[in-house]
Amino acid sequence: MLKTKFPDVTNKISRKIGSVFSRMHLPPTAWTFLSIIPAIIGFYFLVYNRDMFLGFIFFFISGFFDAIDGAVARVTKSVSKLGGYLDGIIDRIIEAFLLIGLLLFDLPGFFIYNYWIPSYLPIALLLFFGSVFVSYSRAYASQKEVIVSEKILNWMPGVLERTERLFLIGIGMLLYYVNPVYTTYVIVIAFLLSVITFLQRVFFVVKHGVRR
Question: What predicted TM-score, i.e. pTM, was given to this entire model?
């Protein structure tokens, strides 16, 4: 949503990040693969140390590294389709580490109308809809050539795209220290917004897609 609604702001921030980190002379793909390391460490802290704060810190570092690769690629004019593909694959792996780490963290569940909702249910649904279906709905529209214009494809709406989704989950991780169940509530909200995003994209493709 941020990239779609505020492209000038996000591009300006990206250029600044790219200009700073391009001085390290690391290729964009190096930053892409480096982002996995803090994600693995964050996963360790969530699953084995049960430390939500350190888990948050390392996944935050991973997300920042992920922002660097694209920024460096644009500044150094080394953007490539292969780089974009690898970036997308690593993004899904990192998000899986985060959500599976939260799933194994054993967050508290809650009641809805006398029905017990275990925490693993919204986390699994968020993994399914947020990380898989939202991305799949865009990629499949392109693969099937229902939308052939890259410009129209980039206009595809989404109230909770990956950046916003991870930001929201990060807030939920910090709210764990206020009340652990708040983290579960935030994950439920993220799941519901991911479903809305998925539906937005499907309706967008139906409206703007090629009919043939």
Answer: 0.88
Beta strands in the chain (DSSP E): 110-112, 115-117
Residue range 21-72, pLDDT digits in tens: 878 878 888 888 999 999 999 999 999 999 999 999 999 999 998 888 888 8
Which CATH number fits the domain 1-105, given the four candidates 1.20.120.1760, 1.10.760.10, 3.40.50.1580, 1.10.10.10? 1.20.120.1760
* Sign (positive or negative) of CA dihedral 15, 20, 26, 32: negative
DSSP per residue, 161-192 = -HHHHHHHHHHHHHHTTT-HHHHHHHHHHHHH
Phi and psi at 37, nearest 5°, equal -60, -55
Domain ranges of the chain: 1-105, 112-212
Give the whole-angstrom CA distance, residue 197 versus residue 119: 22
User: And the tokens for 181?
Assistant: 């169940």
